[in-house]
Design a protein that fits this description.
By secondary structure, the protein is an alpha+beta fold. It folds into two domains: 117 residues, 2,3-Dihydroxybiphenyl 1,2-Dioxygenase, domain 1 (Roll), CATH 3.10.180; 118 residues, Roll (2,3-Dihydroxybiphenyl 1,2-Dioxygenase, domain 1). The chain is 15% helix and 43% strand. The strands form two sheets. An eight-stranded mixed sheet has the order 2-3-4-1-5-8-7-6. Strands 10-11-12-9-13-16-15-14 form an eight-stranded mixed sheet. β14 and β15 form a beta hairpin. The longest helix is centred in the N-terminal third of the chain and has 12 residues. 38% of the residues are buried.
Length: 265
């Protein structure tokens, strides 16, 4: 798991979006817990529904979007991987056995394109392509309050490893977790970009779907976890050590939006 700034460029994670059933409550929770700054988005994108842009120490890092009242899913975080040609990447995703959820679309006014898909195990992820004049090598923000890791949890680990290495050109290395199995590290140009956790053992309820989990860096996992309830959320997995890596916990923002917090060793 990365403890340094996340890699940038094509094939790396570049954005995060919370789709929430309660935008006001989510905004209050995350700004209070992480110190994020939020601002209602401009009218150019208002047809997508109300949402806020989020900054951490002045840098854009995420959006929080209100889900329609008739939405069938609960609140959830959606992470985006940067691609150079979204049409080609989306077509390749389908060839590799992925499922189309939202085909490539243009965000009017900004000329950015995105698409949403599910991998062979059912975990949802998005692709993102910016306008040609945007530099994909712009440094990724780091430090407390920033997104520092991305993890796919799945029951089809071998199939998903093959899927993502072929789709994004990631390479892999293995980390032995003992009884918990083998953790797979995905690399982009030699740098750690994400991980894959097999959903085996009693700690994974049968009704829990495969998913991608974003991690936010904090100065102290224990201190942050202790404040979750006061901010309107609840704890799910208490602070836990990852030997030689760091410490993490999983929290619920109060509406079913799950996210992890991480403190490096």
């Amino acid at each position: 798991m990365a403890t340094r700034p996340m890699p940038t460029g094509f094939g790396s994670f570049c954005w995060n979006q919370l789709n929430t059933t309660d935008l006001g409550a989510a905004e209050a929770f995350y700004t209070k817990l992480f110190g994020w700054e939020s601002k209602l988005a401009d009218k150019a994108l208002s047809h997508w529904g109300p949402f806020t842009s989020v900054k951490n120490q002045g840098q854009d890092i995420a959006t929080l979007m209100q889900m329609p009242a008739n939405a069938e899913s609960q609140s959830h975080w959606l992470s985006y991987v940067w691609v150079q040609d979204i049409d080609a990447s989306f077509a390749k995703m389908l060839e590799l056995g992925g499922k189309a959820l939202v085909p490539p679309k243009v965000l009017p006014g900004v000329e950015w394109r995105f698409a949403v898909f599910a991998d062979p195990g059912g975990a949802m992820l998005a692709m993102f392509q910016q306008a040609p004049d945007v530099d994909p090598a712009k440094p990724m923000p780091s430090g407390p309050g920033t997104f520092c890791w991305f993890e796919c949890t799945t029951r089809l680990d071998e199939a998903c490893i093959a899927f993502y290495t072929a789709l994004f050109g990631w390479t892999t290395s293995a980390m032995d977790m003992g009884p918990a199995g083998t953790y797979t590290l995905f690399h982009k140009d030699g740098e750690q970009v994400a991980g894959l956790m097999p959903m085996t053992g009693p700690e994974w309820p049968e009704d829990m779907p495969a998913h991608w989990m974003p991690y936010v860096a904090v100065e102290s996992v224990d201190a942050t976890y202790a404040r979750v309830a006061d901010c309107g959320g609840q704890g799910c997995v208490p602070p836990t050590d990852i030997p030689n890596v760091g410490r993490f916990a999983v929290i619920d923002d109060g509406s079913g939006g799950f996210i992890s917090i991480f403190q490096g060793a």
